[in-house]
Amino acid sequence: MAEYDAISKRLIQTYPKDIVYFTLGRDDIEVRAILETEQPKVEMHRTDSLILVRIDGEEALVHTEFQTTDSTDTPMPIRMAGYKIRIIEQYGLPVYSFVIYLRPNAGRRDKGRFIQRLPGHRFFVQYKVIRLSEIEGQDIVAGGHHGLLPFAPLMKRPAGMASEEWLRQCIRRTDDVSLDHATKVDFLGGLALLSGLVYEPSTITSIISQEGLMDAIMRESSFAQYLKEQGIEQGIERGVRERAIEDILEVLEVRFGLIPAHPFAAPIAAIDDLQRLKWLLRAAVQVDKLDEFQRLLNGDA
Fold it and tell me: What is the pTM for the complete model shown?
């Protein structure tokens, strides 16, 4: 799926060292370059990543394939065998190959190897399989490898923690990371989109709304179009509107003792125009009397 390909590729390009750490489990590996994987001679699927590294003084390649679901047209072992041979042919370097499965039920039958058993023509290719649902997410959230945070909601949550609370914790941790604004918004947008593989859009938008992050993600994330296609953007818009209505009613309750059954509570809740709701919220804070707010609500100002 193009949206998940785009997220994975951008995270690799931005934080290649974090992906190398995640796959090889070592922090002492030098990342030399991210190599182009769409060259005609290599003929690799565009979602693959190929990172040139130096391990123990020797150059090698780290090849990673992100899979949302099981490969059906061509079995993954055959695909990986083809990728690995072409990479070796192209670069003449040793290759560490990984398949990372995003969905919880994907990759259960992938044994991480291709074997041809013809006598005299035996052929064996091995690669590592990583299923995110089997990775302890708390280790990623608590660690310093920020490039992995958008994948954390797909990982195993701490024992006894509800799934919604785990998603909330992942969002808060990502929001707390010291990044420039544009990068952080993209991270949050990517996290929201990836979360859709295991969470309902309504759950994602509810939590994002409660954390006060809707506007930035909806308007500034480069993944906004993908969010819209999955219905998450519409959910964010609904969340912004609902939050604005709640804020207006709460301000009026605190300042003027308004109760939920008040005659003009329903008209406020029926407003669809977000800009008008924001204007009414400012008015609720500034007016001196409830009657004055009611005139503004009725358009009598």
Answer: 0.72
